[in-house]
Amino acid sequence: TPKTSASCSPAPESPLSSAEESVNGLAGDPLASQSSSLKPPSDDPSGGESQPGTPLPLPGHSGLSIQEMVAMSPELDTYAITKKVKEVLTDNNLGQRLFGETILGLTQGSVSDLLARPKPWHKLSLKGREPFVRMQLWLQDPHSVEKLMDMKRLEKKAYMKRRLSSLSDSHSVDGVLAGTDYVQGSQSPGQQQLKKPRVVLGPEEKEALKKAYQQKPYPSPKTIEELASQLNLKTSTVINWFHNYRSRIRRELFIEEIQAAGGVGPGSEGGSPSLRGSKSGEGDSCDGTESEGTVETRQGLSIGLEDHRGACKDHDMEAESEAGGSNNSPAQLDCTMPGSSCGQGGLGLFSLTEASSSSSASSTNIPASGPARNPRDNNLRKKKAANLNNIIHRLEKAASKEDPSEWEF
DNA sequence: TGAAAGTCAATATC
DNA sequence: GATATTGACTTTCA
């Protein structure tokens, strides 16, 4: 499938075309059309399951494509948004899959990743900002939860219907196969395309690759060849591994920066692998990534990380998880969240966030809402606030200097 | 053109 | 069953 152009101009052949179509096509009442877009299960050839890439229309802003909205969007607080989304989904027992496929046009894995490790707004490309704009709009939609609930009900209904019909057709091979996912090696006779088996790297291989990365994050083709032959892997696998690892390390560092800046952010709920306890002893927690601190260290932005790295365990951040309360209504976002519509009559994405325009494009744009106003844990919050202020000050100083080498950390 | 960004989808884990 | 992880791939960007 073709991918969305990141161009600011509307891309007619966008893969998320349904979104644009729907937005563009919503001449009248967007919300009404949105509800009407909740297709009955019978309309869905997949049996009622929505598909990634076909998010619901965006509420409001009719006539604007999602790309235009993204391009026009002020800086959003991706952490606050994902936090709120997670909260709303959890509170309402809504799954990532449904949310991703319905609202964002993304698969479950992508949603999980996005929610757990959002990148700061200024680090995102236009395309990367799109899901956050969608999330923000979704949060601002007073009926967002109901609509998703409706979808959930419809899916369940469709599922039951399929179950019933497959049960009644239980003697029919087709009926049984209809609900079967073909996995490699078990394709139906007609499906000849054998899927490539997924490569799963063993702990030793990963360890070796990590060591190699520590020595050389950008290995030469020769080194890659050597690694591949030593580990008995394809060179493409090694190349991919380095690409992925660099990319994920980078993202971890964004998160660590945010965490260092006062413990706000997704990692506060254990999101960052590099800060999570090691699950499998495979060592993504304290090993590989800590060395990344020595690998280019993202221009030395490891300020304030010593504590986290040193402790190398979950942080005492549970207080944060309740920051902002557990208001079930997404329409009532934290008023301090950049992009929230509090007191603005629900004017939506573009009526908000003058704050963001005044804020520098920096990951330090920590929402004031981060630290909760809950009277509990005051000491903790005070400490965090002090730490935060200190770090923000230093980051702002740093941001004013082009050359990272001049940064004073 | 190579690296980064973004995403999918298989698989692992909870 | 839901969520997290990760190898592979495509698209974007400098």
Automatic annotation (TrEMBL):
**Annotated segments matching region Disordered:** 262-337, 357-386
The Polar residues compositionally biased stretches are 291-300
Comp. bias intervals (Basic and acidic residues): 305-318
Q: Where in the cell is it found?
A: Nucleus
Give residue spans, biased composition: Low complexity.
5-22, 30-40
Limits of the Homeobox domain: 192-252
> Which stretches hold the DNA-binding feature?
194-253
Could you tell me which residue ranges the CUT domain spans?
A: 67-154
Q: Which family does it belong to?
A: Belongs to the CUT homeobox family.
> What's the name of the protein?
Homeobox protein cut-like
